[in-house]
Amino acid sequence: MSMRNLALVVAATAALGASCVLAEEGPNLGKPISQADLAAWDISIGPEGVGLPPGSGTVKQGEAVFMMKCQGCHGAKGAGQPNDRLVGGQGSLPGDKPAIKTVGSYWPYATTMFDYVRRAMPFAESKSLTGDELYSVVAYVLNLNGIIPDDAVMNAETLPKVVMPNRDGFVRFTRGQ
Questions:
Q1: Is CATH 1.10.760.10 the classification given to domain 35-169?
Q2: Are the C-beta atoms of 61 and 153 separated by less than 8 Å?
Q3: Domain boundaries, the chain
């Protein structure tokens, strides 16, 4: 091996050693997330309703929110096309015909519906609804499906108590069993 090649091998080995040291330290990108920053993303609401935000809403208030922010995609009174339909279909899951999967026929918990609407709706402006708007529009859709009465008020206390028609249609997953 010539001296020139030996010098290249030594230089390459030194560079490789230096890069290994840098790799152990990490790329030094970003910063650890704070609890406050994490809280803004930690918005999951499960069946029991733990973590529901403050606010409340009525069916009547929800109708106004729905007309302004939801009707364009879901149609009048939630009776949109099959993929956008929110009402009807109760009893269609166990039948021979294709199931109509709507809030009233498919969703097992009102709280997980709230979670979905909170994260994903309105489609072009996800996460833009206030707590009061969320509870209101969920109340309206539940009412359209005949699940809650016209005078119902939805909030963090009442929403988890709503019994959905398909509540027992899913197998409950429990960790460690």
A1: yes
A2: no
A3: 35-169
